[in-house]
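Supplementary notes (optional reading)

For those who missed the lab, this is the record we used. Protein: Protein RMD5 homolog B isoform X3. Length: 333 residues.
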Amino acid sequence: MSQCCRKIKDTVQKLASDHKDIHSSVSRVGKAIDRNFDSEICGVVSDAVWDSREKQQQILQTAIVEHLYQQGMLSVAEELCQESTLNVDLDFKQPFLELNRILEALHEQDLGPALEWAVSHRQRLLELNSSLEFKLHRLHFIRLLAGGPEKQLEALSYARHFQPFARLHQREIQVMMGSLVYLRLGLEKSPYCHLLDNSHWAEICETFTRDACSLLGLSVESPLSVSFASGCVALPVLMNIKAVIEQRQCTGVWSHKDELPIEIELGMKCWYHSVFACPILRQQTSDSNPPIKLICGHVISRDALNKLINGGKLKCPYCPMEQNPADGKRIIF
């Protein structure tokens, strides 16, 4: 009994000593957080920049729900809709439900739902120059090859699905046909062993998500995640600007709802709009005032083109070439 009591006492003392060291480290973390993070960031933006609080709350809730749907957390999104009394239309949810159903099947290495979807949307995918359907057929063919010589006849029969893609994917089809020579010896020991790489499944999930979102008019990344990542980059700069504004007692520096007081570089990944500025009017182009390429190759905005029309004719401001304004073509940067 005395030995057990001594052992328990020593263990308790050791635990207390270890806890003391951990507690000391944890307390330093708290102080480091207080020292390096601003506890109040709401003051960075004036309330006048936003619409009403109700509207702001509704936009935020919608963005969170859309993010949850896009991440496949359907039950969490439904629960949030109920608790926040947010009314989400079924037409809004349907694309996300379909995408998640197909992606779940792909994660289980079931190509059926994805192939069915790709075939039903074949024409629109071709307009996007998508190779999704071919990649799905290729992956199914590779699965048959992995089955060994017993699946050789089935694989040869399935190869007929490659016919519509022969012109664009000739080299890849030749590689798959060549792999049949090594089927009896085992593909894993042949020069075609790369066909059995599991990375093909991750690639097909990524390709499907990108092409399906593009076809359905959805962004590959949720707007909430993009906004959050952009905010992490922009917030430190805005906090520094706020400190300067307060120090110099400047007013009215940030009064516009649709623009920041300074330009903040977020990187090319966050470029979503045209960055072309009209050299004539010195204005950035927009959907209502897009860039127009003239016959001579020079580019100006549509508003500038309309202002330069004289007697039904347009003379390029950069070269003496005279042309018909209707011959100008809209371009997208």
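If you only remember one thing from this example: The first helix runs from residue 2 to 36.
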